[in-house]
Specification:
The complex is a heterodimer. Chain A is an alpha+beta fold. Helices cover 33% and strands 26% of the residues of chain A. In chain A, a hairpin with a 2-residue loop joins strand 6 and strand 7. Chain A starts with 6 loop residues before the first strand and ends in an 8-residue tail after the last helix. In chain A, 52% of the residues are buried. By secondary structure, chain B is an alpha+beta fold. Chain B has two domains: 73 residues, Ubiquitin-like (UB roll) (Roll), CATH 3.10.20; 71 residues, DNA polymerase, domain 1, CATH 1.10.150. Chain B has five helices and five strands. Chain B has a five-stranded mixed β-sheet with strand order 2-1-5-3-4, with helices on one face. In chain B, helix 2 crosses helix 5. Classes of the chains: A alpha+beta, B alpha+beta. At the A-B interface, strand 1, helix 2 and helix 6 of A face strand 4 of B.
């Protein structure tokens, strides 16, 4: 289990990282390395150069801006896990983060690294898609933005242009009476999810659902939103029957992955149940009841 | 590639291949065999070391990346030669090990936990070691060892110290 040889470069700033990337087609960015290094030692990835962006201080931040909470690409997952602003403004992200790997991998793993690697089972990709986050990247001295829904295009594949380096992600903050829920099934705590589901709801003064976002992860090439269910559930009280019917319809043409760990049929059933539980938790959470992620 | 690594408060200048992991560098270049090579792809936790006081997997860090950080291995945990740290003592007393392969990593994870949270609940201890695989003990005595160490360190009324 040793990586193939490569040349190591430590970038001082983001434009130097982009220049180093552009100079060699086989170059890859390394941040926390918690996904990339396992792939390298298994020889699933053989970068010719590694561009280390860990020392670029400007890429590590959590701050509130006009569009929501912005998080820098190299911000360690453990910092987000403990951040007070994230806990209050992005409760869905706060709830999902403990499911990413283990303490020791969250201590190194970064927000941008997880998004850029685009593992289908990654919790961060699911939350980015569920909350309609916007990702930012730098290429050729220019910063560009891309919605999470357009960023993920396949398993371990994103629409990030060649030579571009992810710089951050911005999660919109929902105001009002909101609640969140997150569930996943895996073989053991903090291992890869077989299926995961996230839901965030906002209730209006009439007690009806004003806004809802539902995402399912790990079951398809990249996380998906249940748009039709969201539309159907808006304006309802989110009672069990209505939610069940909406989810069944939204998942009727759903073709989940099938592998050694979970069959497509299992994933289909699990997605339905986990989404229902995530929505039920989100409702309870909005009413001020305590719920826990599982 | 020429790098400088600070390990257990000593700075070493080393020539390493870029692809050398911190784990291989500690074991092969510095002879610190307490960091164990298990799966070598971040799953088992046997290679855990402290990087600036935080428990990390040394098999998932290339040696050049660790430049500028303070690295602590199990060899640097006891306050002075011939002594054991309170955590090591507690592991001995409660039989928190059998074959010993996971032990250095378990102790370092416990160190990071207790430095941050002197009074962890059982759940917090279980969560802290959840990324470290032990195939002998069934974990119960390891949890017991960490709880005992926490109690003793609280009683000693002084912070955990590393070897200087």
């Amino acid at each position: 289990m040793k990586a193939a040889p490569f040349r190591y470069f430590r970038a001082a700033d983001i434009d130097e990282a982009c220049a180093l990337l552009a100079a060699d087609e086989g170059a890859r960015v390394i941040a926390g390395g918690q996904t990339l290094v396992p792939m390298m030692v298994m020889r699933l990835a053989r970068p010719t150069r590694l561009i280390d962006i860990n020392r670029i201080a400007a890429l590590s931040y959590i701050r509130k801006d006009a569009n929501g909470i912005a998080i820098g690409a190299t911000t360690r997952q453990c910092l987000v896990e403990r951040d007070a602003l994230v806990a209050t403004e992005l409760p869905l992200l706060a709830r999902a983060i403990p499911f990413i790997g283990h303490n020791a991998t969250r201590a190194r793993g970064t927000i941008g690294g997880s998004l850029a690697n685009a593992d289908p089972a990654a919790e961060l990709s699911l939350i980015a898609i569920t909350l309609d986050a916007t990702l930012s990247y730098r290429a050729g001295g220019k910063t560009s933005h891309i919605p999470a829904r357009d960023f993920f295009v396949g398993p371990m594949t994103t629409s990030l242009p060649a030579g571009a380096c992810l710089t951050g992600v911005c999660f919109p903050v929902w105001l009002g009476k909101i609640g969140v829920g997150f569930h996943e099934v895996n073989a053991r705590r903090s291992d890869f999810a077989f299926v995961s589901a996230a839901a965030q709801v906002e209730f209006g003064p009439d007690g009806k659902c004003k806004r809802i976002a539902i995402g399912v992860g790990a079951a398809t090439d990249f996380p998906m939103r249940l748009d039709t269910a969201e539309q159907q559930l808006k304006g309802t009280a989110l009672d069990e029957r209505t939610v069940g019917a909406a989810l069944r319809e939204a998942l009727s043409d759903f073709e989940p992955l099938s592998d050694l760990h979970a069959s497509a049929e299992y994933r289909r059933r699990a997605a339905d149940k986990l989404a229902a539980r995530a929505i039920a938790d989100a409702c309870a959470h909005a009413q001020g009841k305590k719920t826990h992620a599982h | 590639m020429r790098i400088e690594l600070e390990v257990n408060s000593v700075t070493y200048a080393l020539d390493v291949e870029e692809r050398t992991t911190l784990l291989d560098c500690l074991r092969d270049a510095l002879g610190l065999k307490g960091a164990h090579a298990g799966c070598e792809h971040g799953v088992c936790g046997a290679c855990t070391v402290l990087l600036d006081g935080v428990a990390v997997r040394s098999c998932l860090i290339f040696a050049p990346q660790a430049e500028g950080s303070a690295i602590t291995t199990i060899e640097g945990l006891s306050p002075s030669p011939g002594e054991l740290s309170p955590i090591q003592d507690a592991f001995c007393e409660t039989h928190g090990m059998q074959c010993g392969y996971c032990t250095p990593a378990m102790i370092l994870v416990a160190y990071a936990l207790l430095a941050d949270n002197p009074s962890p609940t059982r759940e917090e201890i279980v969560e802290a070691i959840s990324g470290n695989i032990c195939r002998c003990t069934g974990y119960a005595q390891i949890v017991e060892a960490i709880a005992l160490a926490a109690e003793r360190i609280r009683g000693a009324n002084r912070p955990l110290e590393l070897r200087k």
